[in-house]
UniProtKB/TrEMBL annotation:
The keyword Acetylation does not apply. This is MYND-type domain-containing protein. Residues 17-63 form the MYND-type domain. It comes from Coniosporium apollinis. Keywords: Metal-binding, Zinc, Zinc-finger.
Amino acid sequence: MASTAPADPPSSGSHACAHCGALAVFACPVCRDTPRLDDKVESKWYCDAYCQTADWPDHRPLCKKLIARRRLSRAADFVQSLWYIFKEESNDHRVVDITLKDSVYHVHGDVASPHRLDKSYRFPFPNKLMLDESVKQAVLAHTMCCHAFYHMHDTIVQLLKDLYDDVSEASVVVKNECKKRCVRSLIGGQVDEVDYRHHIMKVKLKSGEVYAIDITGAQYGFHRAMVPWAEYMSTIHGAQNYAFGTARDVIRERLRVRDLESLLERYNEETGLVFKTTLTEALWLAGGLSLPRLIRLPEPAFREKQTQILRHVQAGLHNATELSCPVTIRQLAVKHNYNLSAIMRQRGSRIIGIAS
Ligand SMILES: [Zn+2]
Ligand SMILES: [Zn+2]
């Protein structure tokens, strides 16, 4: 699901040696796999090892910059893939149809049959309804921007270790003139979209390059997890800056209120616990890797380990959530000490559609 493609494999014929101008046959093996961005900056090409060594003092600063860019890009894609897995394996929406109308995907829930207190609140993710991978990503990302940062916070902290100069969060309003967008369809074709604000991260690398990290942008048609900040700014109306960790704190605070919304949030909490254990286990099985080491591996090894880890996390979450997490609303209420009858009297219980 990684959305930032690595650079094309080196091919000779189209490049001149950066040192002598002859026909080049290979790109710098250290930085050649960096994703290509709109700035068109890419690895340098050489005809032989002599020219590569001779050019090193000149190439070194660019090489370091590209390596840092590649690490951040890998970190962003990895976290985004983890989030998609997290959400797919803890789906709590009974989706019955997805329709496309005026560039907007309407996700139709099953409003006819309410959730029952003693029936599972989890539903297999409706993969059959997903028209393609981009629709699936949009649905998995929908209304989840703060949740994604909350559940991925510790993973992001580890991945970014020693990589950045500055990191913060931003709340933005997305321009959606020509992009596909994902909304939840309610009774009578009404659309559940009160708030257009979207939450992203802003990372300044030590090289000075600044990037937007958007894990859940797919709901607005933005599928790339890492985008140069200036480019991202052209797709939004305005950004309000927050300290890194704000999204996590907002959800944490939300959980302190003992209402229906926070009770249902406990589903994600349960999944979050399993996620942490499963990811730790996956890294251990991948040879005792740490997250900072993972994104520093050479390209083929990185791809292989990343696939292995993502598969393990998905299988782990798939098996463990059903076995070890409370799955009915009543079980959750008992485990987390909520007053269920008071909660059922709240207005929200009818809106969300819960019946005893
Ligand atoms: Zn040369
Ligand atoms: Zn290089």
